[in-house]
Amino acid sequence: MQFLDPAAAIAQITVPSGGTVADFGAGAGYVAVALAERVGEDGTVYIIDIQRELLTKVTHLAKQEHIDTFVYIHADLEEAGSTGIADASLDAVVVSNVLFQVKEKKTVLQEAARVLKKEGTLLLVDWRESFGNVGPVKDAVLLEADARALLEQVGFVIERDIDAGSYHYGLVAVKGVSVAQ
């Protein structure tokens, strides 16, 4: 059972053809594949994950899907500046099913803000609830209201919600003029 349709989620945000984007906490790489389809052959998709074995899996998926626009980065998103991506260089960042897993949620979002261009797009997708531990354990769930508050705290302006399916919420936010670090 697939809980999130990455292509449907990505279709609801602005991702420019030829753009430069990142998948924070790429996991198995399905969101990254959807991003690659949107940016096309002239674009770049940064694949970022703390687990090297997942980065290896994504390389295999990229070969299978004939994608050569991926740049792989092994990084701990809970450490400021860990991606090594230049300031204000990305058109979009996707943080999908990541925040429920990390303690330093604000640091992850600050890194997204740092690498996004002014008015760059952030797509945040996370679990609505635990669903009887089908999703994360109840205590790990980041409630949508808390996610909204955290985004605003970091300096994002929430533009709209997206349909992320029955199990997830999706928020589209834009990097504000001045983002708190």
Order of helices and strands: HEHEHEEHEHEE
Indicate how many domains the architecture comprises: 2
Query: What is the gyration radius calculated from CA atoms?
Result: 15 Å
CATH topology of the largest domain: Rossmann fold
Structural class: alpha/beta
CATH level-two architecture of the largest domain: 3-Layer(aba) Sandwich
- Arrangement of strands in the largest sheet: 3-2-1-4-5-7-6
Largest pleated sheet = 7 strands, mixed
Distance between the termini: 38 Å
Strand content: 25-35%
Number of strands: 7
Secondary structure topology:
Blueprint: H1 6-10, E1 20-24, H2 30-39, E2 44-49, H3 52-65, E3 70-74, E4 90-96, H4 105-115, E5 116-127, H5 144-154, E6 156-162, E7 168-175
Parallel strand pairs: 1-2, 1-4, 2-3, 4-5
Antiparallel strand pairs: 5-7, 6-7
Helix pairs in contact: 4-5
Commentary on this structure:
- This protein is an alpha/beta fold.
- It folds into two domains: 1-77, Vaccinia Virus protein VP39 (Rossmann fold, 3-Layer(aba) Sandwich); 116-181, 3-Layer(aba) Sandwich (Rossmann fold).
- Helix content is 28%, strand content 28%.
- It has five helices and seven strands.
- It has helices at residues 6-10, 30-39, 52-65, 105-115, 144-154, and strands at 20-24, 44-49, 70-74, 90-96, 116-127, 156-162, 168-175.
- The chain has a seven-stranded mixed sheet, sandwiched between helices.
- Strand 2 (44-49), helix 3 (52-65) and strand 3 form a beta-alpha-beta unit.
- Helix 4 (105-115) crosses helix 5 (144-154).
- The radius of gyration is 15 Å and the shape is globular.
- The model has no long low-confidence stretch (mean pLDDT 93).
